[in-house]
Amino acid sequence: MLKILYFAWLRERIGTPSEQIESESETVGALIEELASRDERYALAFSDLGSIRVAVDQELADFDAPISDASEIAFFPPMTGG
Amino acid sequence: MAVCIQTEPFSVGQEIKRLTGNRRDIGAVVSFVGVVRDSGKDPLESMVIEHYPGMAEVAIAKIVDEVHRRWNVSDCLVVHRHGNLKPGEEIMMVVTASAHRADAFAAADFMMDYLKTRAPFWKKELRSGGAKWVSSNRADEAASRRWEAETA
Q: Packing angle between helix B101-118 and helix B55-70, nearest 10 degrees?
């Protein structure tokens, strides 16, 4: 099982802060495609990849990062703390 | 090194004392405090800070590690609040302490640049006209990148 987390406007657009899924996707990019193909909400949330950042097991990662051994993937917009 | 992520307000004076209290090797303390600012015509009612629990602590700890690699810093501290904050309230603070001021200034500057772009926090502005997520700032990204070229 893979835990997926969403933050900020991604959380709002998708409508949930987290979910557990079974996925065969091997990279972040493949996972995004899998999620975006689910329904319109997901497709819209992932429509502009330039405004999405990802963390694999709480570490910032690229879209081509492998996720086969990952347990937690988080999607969020560019950070605006400080 | 201390990293505190909390909803409660903090006291800059107390936090600095906590850092310097029992030491005699610190000659310089630099602090930065971020405050909720109201700009724009439609008055800001409040600012909601969201964060990624777990990763936020890890990300800040990594930044602190990098600070110690680059500068001769005795200690540093980060406090970042989350939740609902009003204009004028303090959002976060960074404190760096060192023997001499150059290291403390540079380390604080670096920490702020990296925190802005690498620590998982997001701001949402609530105004009478509606709510809006703050978009990331290109200047912050550029400020963060300038350290990558340096080999301090």
A: 150
Q: Of B123, B64, B139, nearest to B95 (Cα)?
A: B64
pLDDT score at B41? 81
Query: Looking at residue B148, what is its pLDDT?
Result: 86
B101-113 burial, b for 16+ CB within 10 Å, e for fewer?
A: eebbebbbbbbbb
Q: Note if the pTM is more than 0.80.
A: yes
> Which residues of B are less than 8 Å from A8 in CB distance?
50, 122, 124, 133
Tell me the backbone φ, ψ of residue B14, rounded to 5 degrees: -65, -40
ipTM reported for the complex, 2 dp: 0.95
With CB atoms and an 8 Å threshold, state whether B52 touches A58: yes
CB spacing of B51 vs A58 below 8 angstroms: no
A77 touches B: beta carbon within 8 Å:
yes
Judge: B117–A7 Cβ closer than 8 Å, yes or no: no
Beta bridge partners of B53: none
Pair A45, A13: CB distance under 8 Å? yes
Successive 10-residue mean pLDDT values, chain B, 152 residues: 93 93 94 92 94 97 96 97 97 97 98 95 95 89 85 52
CB contact (8 A) between residue B135 and residue A58: no
